[in-house]
Design goal:
Elements (H helix, E strand, L loop, with lengths): L1 H18 L1 H11 L4 H29 L4 H22 L1
Helix pairs in contact: 1-3, 1-4, 2-3, 3-4
Length: 91
């Protein structure tokens, strides 16, 4: 149970990070004074890295639940979508 609570906390943090990435990535690009293609490339990579973190967290939860096959894929897909919806609801 303790592992599940830790995983949930990590998921909430990762999800918030990933789906709030656009403003955070843009802020980082501004701090670095990037513009043009360099800015676009930086933001794109930053957002991809953040979404990868969310997927990794959901994969970890699926492993802890000992899911495999279609059940695992379904869980991970729903987990990622729920994370996006949770962050959108808080905006």
């Amino acid at each position: 149970m303790k592992k599940l609570m830790i995983a949930a906390a990590l998921a909430a943090f990762a999800c918030g990070t990933a789906f709030a990435a656009a403003p955070a990535c843009e802020a980082q690009a501004n701090e670095k004074k990037l513009s043009g293609a360099a800015r676009t490339s930086f933001i794109k990579k930053c957002e991809k890295d953040a979404s990868d973190a969310v997927k990794q967290t959901c994969d970890t939860q699926a492993t802890e639940k000992k899911l495999s096959g279609a059940a695992r894929n379904s869980f991970v897909t729903k987990c990622v979508k729920d994370a996006a919806g949770a962050v959108a609801a808080h905006k």
